[in-house]
Design brief:
Length: 83
Amino acid sequence: FEASVANTAGVDALVQWRERANERLAAGQRRLEEGMMGRAALYEPIDNRRFHKDGHGYDAHEAEKAMLLDPNARLDASGYFEM
């Protein structure tokens, strides 16, 4: 990957990419350490996730299973997964 970046975008782009990558790695390590000490959440649930709220014949758990297992499952026009 690094050779490809250097060949297509130049050595300066590679140096910049490495710096940003190392910053991301360091931030991830800091976040993990903060979580291990109880200062930051290690997992935060995502709101919405493109599923309707359960009710009226809709089960978000079933819709999520279909999204993962059914190759024909798609978002509908409203942007939500339907069953």
